[in-house]
């Protein structure tokens, strides 16, 4: 009984700092995350990674042909062999990706927000040519999705007053 009361009191103390700071959930009723949905058009490279990135951005921010804002993204991916066997076969690759993004109003080149998102993923090349190629494609897709999620987070943070 006593430990139950203690947990309740600790929860109240944990919530006190948030009560006075004006904290508003991003996806709450008055949050900035929902206000961007369907208002941003996207421009990304015409590559497999660019397609996957655009798809993820549309999933997170909504699809629009002509938005109030234009998000332009450039992607740079580097592949590095990280495990080489004694027979000189490469068994694992790291893919590091960097996405430079700029948010503008259409027809105006002045950036409202900009940034760089960077992350990495890896894949195994231990198998047949077909399985290695599929693993590489999957790693590139995962990388593009992760970069898109980082960009969305940065945009939401930039839009908070």
Summarize the structure.
With 161 residues, the protein is α+β, with helices and mostly antiparallel strands. It is built from 4 helices and 4 strands; from the N terminus they run ααβαβββα.
What can you see in these coordinates?
The protein is an alpha+beta fold and 161 residues long. Helix content is 42%, strand content 29%. It contains 4 helices and 4 strands. The protein has a 4-stranded mixed beta sheet with strand order 1-2-3-4. Helix 3 links the parallel strand 1 and strand 2. The radius of gyration is 21 Å and the shape is flat. The protein starts with a helix and ends with a helix. The mean pLDDT is 83.
Average pLDDT over all residues? 83
Query: How far from one another are the termini?
Result: 44 Å
Structural shape: flat
Number of separate strands? 4
What does the largest sheet look like? 4 strands, mixed
Low-pLDDT residue intervals, each spanning 5 or more residues: none
Secondary structure category: alpha+beta
Helix content range: 40-55%
Radius of gyration: 21 Å
SSE succession: HHEHEEEH
Strand order within the widest beta sheet:
1-2-3-4
Number of helices, counting only DSSP H or I runs of 4 residues or more: 4
Residue fraction in strands: 25-35%
Keywords:
single chain, alpha+beta, four-stranded mixed beta sheet, flat
Q: Could you outline the blueprint of secondary structure elements for this entry?
A:
Layout: H1 2-19, H2 32-35, E1 40-43, H3 48-61, E2 69-84, E3 90-104, E4 113-124, H4 129-159
